[in-house]
Amino acid sequence: MLLGAHLRRLREAQGVTREDAGWEIRSSESKISRMELGRVGFKERDVADLLSLYGVDDPEERSRLLALARDANNPGWWHRFGDVLPSWFHSYLGLEAAAALIRTYEVQFVPGLLQTKEYARAVVLLGHGRAKEDEIERRVELRLQRQQILTRADAPKLWMVVDEAALRRPIGGHDIMRAQVDALLEINRTLPNVRLQVIPFNAGGHAAAGGAFTILRFPDDDLPDVVYIEQLTSALYLDKRDDVDLYAEAMERLCVEARPPTETAKILEEIRKDLDA
Questions:
Q1: Vertex 72 angle, CA 81 and 59, to 5°
Q2: How far is CA 252 from CA 102, 211, 245, in A?
Q3: Which of 76, 107, 200, 220 gets the most CB atoms within 10 Å of its CB?
Q4: What is the pTM of this model?
Q5: With contact defined as beta carbons under 8 Å apart, do 207 and 213 qualify?
Q6: What is the per-residue pLDDT across 206-224, written as a single tens digit (0 to 9) for each?
């Protein structure tokens, strides 16, 4: 998806039509469209030919983009969970693994990257209550493996804004929720790359009334930010500048409307006490 978006911008900057680009790689306009949407694999030769057509002659830039093409064809660790992984979520896991900054607003649940095993299991059961036990466990394992990006050597910065309702909703029961809040307190204390803010009930209406979303930013400045919006049976991936700017503005307002990160531990401790009551 990232490489496709970059190729699209290069093509548009040069005023090349999809039809002409397709002819250059001995293919069709529809093939170029699928490549730019990240819906088809990349042949390194095709990418090299397109880069030449688009006037990309800087050796370093060509090398970087060709390396991205090779990486796009390599299966990620999550492919072994293909039996329980929706096709539309594959792309997100690749983007999440490549991101340098992940900004998320969540209204219903504790964000997946911060969930404990038992909380994650309770969330999975909400949507897959009739599934077999081994399928449930594989879905939980997938979620926990995602969390390894937070402690790797080049860990991304994670900036989460969570509605207070999500922290007070006892998913799985009070014992599981207490353990989850304890885990959030520990994460808040020990992981400097994770910033957690809470939007309290008394904030009233706020900028993201439309629901949860995630913005992913990548270490290469030439790659566009991507907005991810999950739905019940599919997901939206937005990378057009106007769309991204709109969500980025909403996220900035959310961060202002939420309590500052310095107050997060205090809020979590208050919620923990209420769960004990």
A1: 160
A2: 13, 15, 10
A3: 107
A4: 0.83
A5: no
A6: 665 678 999 999 987 767 8
Residues whose CB falls within 8 Å of the CB of residue 156, separated by 6 or more in sequence, listed in order: 99, 100, 101, 102, 149, 150, 193
Summarize pLDDT for 73-97 with one digit per residue, the tens: 777 888 899 899 998 898 899 899 9
Q: Which residues are registered as beta bridge partners of 236? A: 229
Task: Assign 265 to helix, strand or coil.
Answer: helix
Provide the total of helices (H) and of strands (E) in the chain, helices listed first: 12, 6
pLDDT score, position 204? 67
Q: What are phi and psi of 115, to 5 degrees?
A: -80, 140
Radius of gyration of the chain from Cα atoms? 21
pLDDT tens track for 133-176: 999 999 999 999 999 999 999 999 999 999 999 999 999 999 99
